[in-house]
Design brief:
Order of helices and strands of chain B: HHHHHHHHHHH
Shape of chain A: globular
Order of helices and strands of chain A: HHHEEHHHHHHHHHH
CATH class of the largest domain in chain B: Mainly Alpha
CATH superfamily of the largest domain in chain A: MetI-like
Strand order of the largest sheet of chain A: 1-2
Largest interface: A-B, 100 and 98 residues
Distance between the termini of chain A: 30 Å
Structural class of chain A: mainly alpha
Largest sheet of chain B: none
Number of domains of chain A: 2
Helix content of chain A: over 70%
Oligomer: heterodimer
Radius of gyration of chain A: 26 Å
Radius of gyration of chain B: 25 Å
């Protein structure tokens, strides 16, 4: 592939051209090699993540049984009487992600319907970038918002709850993932062929019927993909939950309780700069591996669903 | 809106109660979706307004020139601001060239086989890995194995790894959007592959690559979790001078101040957030302008 154009490139001076093409061949090879190296570095990144997580995770499970880790209902690795059941951290993560989804999934899909079906091009050109700003705000800022705005509002509604609770973190994580749901769903709705809408209108459907019975079903896999990717983001969110959710590993599904998520635990241990080789240090990797696998499954599902939908609609 | 009448208007038939109800429901639905869309905008306005109100009174000249302090009235963001600017420069220098190189290789050079497909799928998934996992990687790899400690270079390397997949994805998309005819025309004139890439593909893909890179670097600037993991400081009274120095960054400082129970520190946190947001959102805006302008020309 490389050789062919090079030999033609000499132009009207064959002798000089041959010399030049020799030098050019070398340069071409060098460039291809350097670019390939760049790609190799990025490919190695995955291998690096998996190897690093796996190496210390293996060490962790030589000291703690996998069964205890997966089924234990108490997470207390830093206490005198240690206990390594990940369920409280897992329930904390799931609780926050669930709460965020309750807020973000319906709002995201409804906004996407508005942007794709109702908004004029001018309104859409303003509204969509504004909504996407929500995704560009650093997550530590959402932690601040949870603590100073959301929690006081929640405490006005439910006077009994503490300063740190899962609900407050859920609300801001929901706001954070709203643009993910909105953008990807809108993209899916806009990819629905115009003819489908026209046909439904011709049969006498109202705009709402077209939106809910034609556009949403046709774009459903895009909507599902946006859900998976948004939930994956919610599970991986660290700062808002570290600041607002309370850092106490409780096995609960009550959003008004204080909880600790997997990410918040990792950050808590990270702040104490644990010594390498200790069991405390190894818990980072075991919990990190669990988080990595969970979000990976969500991402893979999301991309798989999204690619399928791209094949269906040409 | 005009199509609403399609339910019965054109035919001249009387509208039944059923049609009227369906039309009314359709109008209500439109309002509901509008409110859903406006909700996000409203939330954005409330967040920005609240932070500005809380932080404005701390934003004075000495807030930028003072170091952090136990006394709120004397505290400033000199060290974290410098740290953030260092990180911004270093991640741009380290992550952008390698990522663009990788994207060029994957789009223009790589053979179309299973290995290439696997690498591509991988990169999309890497972009979705939580930032704290990159923090664990940075802790194990740079801080411990390479012995770099909680230094500026550890932070910059960790953040570079975090944003590389994002830049690669954006650059790949920009390169893929260059029409095939451009490449074929250049090949027909005798250009080599690198000449085609350098003189034809890259100039056309540049706006997309630049806007993607700016967005990714702005994300690195706003990240806190990976910096916590590699052991960046939260209280520091000097600015980093070299790559091996300990450092702090704006998001770390915000986190530190938010975590203090005293109310005054919340105000400081808000002021630091204002500075952080000005930096991050102006980068976002620049990326948006570059992208939309190139779209108009294309």
């Amino acid at each position: 592939m490389i050789e062919m154009p090079v030999s033609v490139g000499a132009g009207s001076l064959p002798a000089a051209g041959l010399v030049r093409s020799g030098a050019r061949m070398h340069r071409e090879r060098l460039v291809a090699w350097v670019l390939g190296l760049c790609a190799a570095i990025s490919a190695l990144l995955t291998v690096g993540i998996v190897l690093v997580l796996a190496s210390e995770t293996v060490g962790f499970f030589s000291q703690v049984s996998l069964w205890e880790f997966l089924t234990g209902t108490r997470w207390a690795p830093l206490f005198q009487e240690k206990s390594f059941g990940i369920l409280p951290l897992l329930s904390g993560s799931v609780l926050v992600a669930l709460g965020a989804s309750v807020l973000a999934l319906p709002l995201g899909v409804l906004s996407a319907i508005y942007l794709s079906e109702y908004a004029t091009p001018g309104v859409r050109a303003v509204l969509k970038p504004l909504l996407e700003v929500l995704a560009g705000i650093p997550t530590v800022v959402y932690g601040y918002v949870a603590l100073t705005l959301v929690t006081p509002a929640l405490r006005a509604l439910f006077p009994g709850i503490g300063v740190f609770n899962a609900a407050s973190a859920s609300v801001v994580v929901g706001i954070m993932i709203l643009p993910t749901v909105m953008s990807l769903s809108e993209e899916a709705f806009r990819a629905v062929p115009r003819g489908l809408r026209e046909a439904a209108f011709a049969l006498g459907a109202t705009k709402m019927e077209v939106a809910t019975q034609v556009v949403v079903p046709a774009g459903l896999s895009g909507v599902l993909a946006s859900f998976f990717l948004a939930i994956s983001r919610a599970l991986g969110e660290t700062m808002a939950v570290t600041i607002a959710a309370g850092n106490s590993p409780n096995l609960t599904l009550n959003p008004l309780d204080a909880v600790q998520t997997m990410t918040a635990y990792i950050a808590q241990v990270g702040m104490g700069s644990p010594a390498a080789g200790t069991l405390e240090y190894r818990t980072l990797f075991a919990v990190g591996m669990t988080l990595f696998l969970l979000t990976l499954v969500m991402n893979v599902l999301g991309h798989w669903v999204r690619n399928r939908f791209r094949e269906v609609i040409p | 809106m005009k199509r609403e009448g399609a339910g019965g208007g054109g035919s001249g038939l009387e509208w039944g109660a059923g049609s009227r109800r369906r039309l009314a429901r359709s109008r209500v639905f439109e309002v509901v979706t509008l409110f859903a869309a406006l909700f996000g905008v409203l939330v954005l306005a409330v967040i920005l307004g609240d932070i500005l109100l809380d932080g404005a009174r701390h934003l004075s000249g000495h807030f930028f020139t003072n170091y952090a302090s136990r006394f709120p009235e004397r505290a400033g963001i000199r060290a974290p601001l410098m740290g953030t600017l260092w990180l911004l420069g270093l991640t741009t220098l380290m992550a952008v060239p390698v990522s663009v190189g990788a994207a060029i290789y994957l789009e223009e050079y790589a053979p179309r086989n299973w290995a290439t497909r696997a690498v591509r799928a991988n990169i999309a998934n890497l972009a979705g890995v939580p930032s704290i996992v990159y923090g664990i990687l940075g802790l194990a790899l740079f801080v411990r194995t390479l012995g770099l400690g909680g230094s500026l270079i550890s932070g910059a390397l960790t953040l570079s790894l975090l944003i590389m997949p994002i830049i690669i994805l954006a650059a790949q998309e920009a390169i893929r959007a260059v029409p095939h005819g451009v490449r074929e025309g250049a090949y027909a004139l005798g250009a080599s592959r690198w000449q085609v890439v350098r003189h034809q593909v890259l100039p056309l893909a540049l706006p997309g690559i630049v806007s993607g890179a700016i967005l990714a670097v702005s994300r690195a600037v706003g990240e806190t979790a990976p910096l916590i993991m590699i052991g960046a400081m939260s209280f520091i009274a000097f600015t980093p001078e070299s790559l091996g120095d300990p450092f702090t960054a704006l998001p770390m400082q915000v986190f530190h101040w938010v975590s203090r129970p005293q109310e005054e520190f919340k105000g400081l946190a808000a002021a630091a957030i204002v500075v952080l947001l000005v930096l991050v959102l102006s980068m976002n805006a620049a990326a948006f302008v570059i992208r939309s302008r190139s779209r108009l020309e294309g």
